[in-house]
Prior knowledge:
Blueprint: H1 13-30, H2 51-54, H3 63-66, H4 85-109, E1 118-122, H5 152-176, E2 188-193, H6 194-197, E3 199-206, E4 225-229, E5 241-245, E6 252-256, E7 267-270, H7 285-288, H8 299-326, H9 332-342, H10 351-367, E8 376-377, E9 389-394, E10 401-411, E11 416-417, H11 422-442, H12 450-453, H13 464-477, E12 482-485, H14 495-498, E13 509-512, H15 516-527, E14 531-535, E15 539-543, E16 549-558, E17 566-573, E18 579-585, H16 587-590, H17 600-609, E19 612-622, H18 624-638, H19 644-653, E20 660-671, H20 675-684, E21 688-692, H21 697-706, E22 715-718, H22 725-736, E23 741-746, H23 747-756, H24 758-766, E24 770-774, H25 778-792, E25 795-800, H26 806-811, E26 814-818, H27 825-829, E27 832-834, H28 839-879, H29 891-897, H30 902-906, H31 916-921, H32 926-930, H33 937-961, H34 966-988, H35 994-1010, H36 1020-1023, H37 1026-1053, H38 1059-1062
Amino acid sequence: xxxxxxxxxxxxxxxxxxxxxxxxxxxxxxxxxxxxxxxxxxxxxxxxxxxxxxxxxxxxxxxxxxxxxxxxxxxxxxxxxxxxxxxxxxxxxxxxxxxxxxxxxxxxxxxxxxxxxxxxxxxxxxxxxxxxxxxxxxxxxxxxxxxxxxxxxxxxxxxxxxxxxxxxxxxxxxxxxxxxxxxxxxxxxxxxxxxxxxxxxxxxxxxxxxxxxxxxxxxxxxxxxxxxxxxxxxxxxxxxxxxxxxxxxxxxxxxxxxxxxxxxxxxxxxxxxxxxxxxxxxxxxxxxxxxxxxxxxxxxxxxxxxxxxxxxxxxxxxxxxxxxxxxxxxxxxxxxxxxxxxxxxxxxxxxxxxxxxxxxxxxxxxxxxxxxxxxxxxxxxxxxxxxxxxxxxxxxxxxxxxxxxxxxxxxxxxxxxxxxxxxxxxxxxxxxxxxxxxxxxxxxxxxxxxxxxxxxxxxxxxxxxxxxxxxxxxxxxxxxxxxxxxxxxxxxxxxxxxxxxxxxxxxxxxxxxxxxxxxxxxxxxxxxxxxxxxxxxxxxxxxxxxxxxxxxxxxxxxxxxxxxxxxxxxxxxxxxxxxxxxxxxxxxxxxxxxxxxxxxxxxxxxxxxxxxxxxxxxxxxxxxxxxxxxxxxxxxxxxxxxxxxxxxxxxxxxxxxxxxxxxxxxxxxxxxxxxxxxxxxxxxxxxxxxxxxxxxxxxxxxxxxxxxxxxxxxxxxxxxxxxxxxxxxxxxxxxxxxxxxxxxxxxxxxxxxxxxxxxxxxxxxxxxxxxxxxxxxxxxxxxxxxxxxxxxxxxxxxxxxxxxxxxxxxxxxxxxxxxxxxxxxxxxxxxxxxxxxxxxxxxxxxxxxxxxxxxxxxxxxxxxxxxxxxxxxxxxxxxxxxxxxxxxxxxxxxxxxxxxxxxxxxxxxxxxxxxxxxxxxxxxxxxxxxxxxxxxxxxxxxxxxxxxxxxxxxxxxxxxxxxxxxxxxxxxxxxxxxxxxxxxxxxxxxxxxxxxxxxxxxxxxxxxxxxxxxxxxxxxxxxxxxxxxxxxxxxxxxxxxxxxxxxxxxxxxxxxxxxxxxx
Length: 1063
C-alpha cells in the first residue's frame, strides 16, 4: 500500500511563493473592477420628525402644554424621484424590473379568493352552481412530497416528522368525523363551542321559526326559499342574514342572527339539527381564526447549524491549504476535490441522526415520567427549548385557576352577605314568598292583582327583606341557563315522549349555560330557595321555597357580547301580567345605565381586590304600551341588511336608561392546586412570567397577587388608561421612574403604547419582574409573544387551555396546552400537553435541563468524532508529501461511524448532571441554562483543540512506533482511535447508567470480534502480539491522560455550581 503512494519532492518556499504570485497576478489582471462603488438607493428617508419625536421620552408635563398638534405627527417616508433611462437601468433598475415581474407572477399564482356575501337557494337546483371550498380542516404542516427519502442520513429526520404529521392527521380526522345526536325541545338545540372559543358550557341555538310550522320534516325540502348571509369574517360572536320564503303570500322575511347559527367546529351536544350550509372549508370561522401552523426550530439546532457552517469553512480552508502546500502541481482542482472528500468527516453528517433519535428518547422519557402523568409530547423537534426559556406567558382562567365558579358575595349597597350569612338570605326569601302567597290567597275574590292595587301608593323605602327578594329573583331570571334532565333508562327517543320519560327530580337536574358564572349564579339561587326548574324558548319556571311554581314568559333575550359586556331579558309575570326588563353586566358597562348611587364603584373595587368576578344587576318596569313600541322598533331593526348591529343596539339602548340598581354579585374562580409553589419556583429559576387575560384589571391584579405571580415584596404599577400619544408619553415617563415593580396594563392602553412607542414600552416592560395584561384579545396575546421574541431575542413559552389561546401558543417558541374545562383545542395545537399547571415546573427545570445538557454534549461529541479522524487524515497527508490518499478505507470508515462508536456516543442521552429532586429543590440552577454555556463557540473551540491534540498524538504516535509495514500504522492508529473514543465518552459522562456500561463493552466487543474478519486492513499475526498491545496502550494513554488530569484539576479548582449541591 505504501508503494502505491505518489511521492512528490518538497519544493523550496521561494519557488512555491513565486509560482503562487504568478498565478495570482494572472488572475487579478483578468479580473474587472470590484463592486465596491456605492449605488444610490431608490428610497431616501426624509426625517421630518415632529416636535414630539425630537423630545427625549423623559420630559416634563409642561412640554405637552405648548403644542397639542404634535401628538399625532409622525415621520413620513417620501420617495425621491427615480432616475430614468440607461443610468437608472444600470444602477439597479434591472433588479427592480425583475423583482416586480416575479412579484406579479407570484400574486397571479397565489391570488386569494375574494370573500363575498352569498345567497343559498332552497328548491332551485339550477341556481346551486356556486363553488365553495372543501369542508375539512387541515392542521398538517407538510405535503406528501416533503417525505420523499433523501438518503439514509435524512431518513431518521423524515421518519420523525412523518410520525408527528400522521398524528396531526389522525387528530384532524377525529375532529372532522365527529357526529352527535340527542333529542331535546323541538325548535332548539344545545351546542358546545369549546373547540372554537374555549367555553365548555352549552349554548342554546334556535331554528328559523317559519320552518317549524311545516307539517312534516320532508316538507322542508319542497319549499322555495333562500338564505342571504354576510361575507365570511373572523368574528365568531356575530352573524347577519335573512331567511326569505317565496312560495307564501305574502313572502316571509325573517332575520337571522348568531342564535340561528352553528359554526363548524362546534358540537351538537343535545338535539338534532337540519340546516343549510353557508360557509365551508377555509371560509369557516374556526379556520379563519386559526393561524397557519409553522415548523419550530429549537435554539440548540440553530446554534449547531452555525457551528456546522464553521466546520464547512474549516473543511474548505484545510483543503485549499493542502493543495497550496502541494504547489498546485498537475490537475490541482482534482486534488482539491479529493481533499474535500477525504476531510468530509469534518462535517458531522450523522449529527442529525443522533440528535433526532435523542429527541425521540427525550419525548419518551417525558411521557413516561410518573410525576407528571398525562403529559404528551406533540412536537418532537424542540424538547431542548424547555431548558432555554426566559419568558413564560400564561392565561389566567382555566390555566392558573380551576374555571370552577363559586358564589361568594351579594351586596345591596347598605348590607353585604358572604358565605357565612347565606342562611339570612334564605330566610328573607322564604319570608317574602310566604307573605306574597298569603296576600294572594286573601285577595282571590278581587279581580285586580294585588301589586296593581299598591301601584298608586306613595313610594317608601323598601325593607331589607324585599330588597333581597328582588335581587334573588332578578338573578334567577336574568341569565341564559337551561336546566337539563337526563332520560330514564329504556325511555323512548321520540320527541313527543321525551318530556314524559324524563326524571324531573332535583338530583337528576343539571344546568347548562354559555358561561360558568351563569351556572354559579343559578345554583346559588337554588341554594337560597328559588329554583329554576324549566326553560324553553318562550317561558321560564321558578319554584319557590313553598313549592309553588311561578311562570314567566320570555318576551326578549339580549345575549352577552364582548362589545356590550352585558346581557338582559324582558319577562312577563303570568300571575300579575307585569313586564320587567332585567339586565346584568360588567361594572364598566352598567355604571352609566343604573340610577345615581354612591357605592357601586367602591364596592366593585373591593370585590375585585378579593379576587371576585363582579356583576351588576338592575331592573326596569315596563308598561304594555312601552313594550309594544319597543318590539316594533326592535323587529324592524333586526330585518335591516345594512348596519344591523348598530341599529339593534340603538333600539336596545333606548330602554337602558335610569334602571334601578338591585345588587352586586361576586363569584370566585379558585386557583389550581400547586399554582403558588410552581410560580415561585419558576421565578426563582429566572423565568419572567407574564399573565395575559381577558378578565378585568382588578380581578387580574388580585389573582396575580394571590397566586404569587407578583411576590409580596414587589410593588405594582397600574398603568393608567391612555387614549392618545401624549397620555401614553406621560404615563411611560411615570413608569420609567419605578424600579423593580410589576406592571399591570389593559389591552386598550397597550394598543396605544405599541402604536406610538413600541420599542420604548417593550424595553421598560422587559425589565419588570412580572407583567399582567388584562382585557386582551387572542390576537393581542399572539402579538405580545411575537414582540417579545423580536425585541429580546430570548426564548418564549406560552401556556393556555382554551381555543382563544391557540394563536398565542403557536406564536411562541414553545407552546404548552392544558387539557381543562375549556376543551382540548389548546392541547392539540400545542407542542407539549399537560393536565395541570403545576406540571410545568418539573417539565422545565428537570426535563428541559436534561434535554438541553444531553443534546449539547451529544452534538459536540459527534463533531469531535469527525474532527479527530479528519485531523489524523491531515497529519497523514502532510507527512506523505500532501498526498490525497485516504488513511482508512472501506469498512473501517463505515464501522467507525456506526457499530464501533455509535452506542457509547448515543448513550450520552442517559447522562444527567443533576438529579431530578436536586433540580426541583434548587431551581436557581436553571438560570445557567439560559446563558447557553453548554454549547457555545467557546466550548466548540475547546473540543476542536482536543480533537487536534488527540488526532495528532494518535497519528504521529503510530508513525513513530511502526517498524516495517504501513499496515501496522493503520492497525495501531485505528485501534487507539476506537479506545480513545470510548474513553472520551467515559470522560464526558457525569452520572453512569447501566446501559452506558453495556454500550461501552458492546462496542468494544464488536470491534475485537471484527478484527478476525478484517484481514484486508489488519495483519492478524501482528495484532495478537505484545508489541501491538503496548504500542496501542501507550498512544491511548498519551492522548487521554492529560485530558483526565485537566478535568480532575478543573473540578477541584473551579467546580461547577451544581457540584456543591450534589457533594
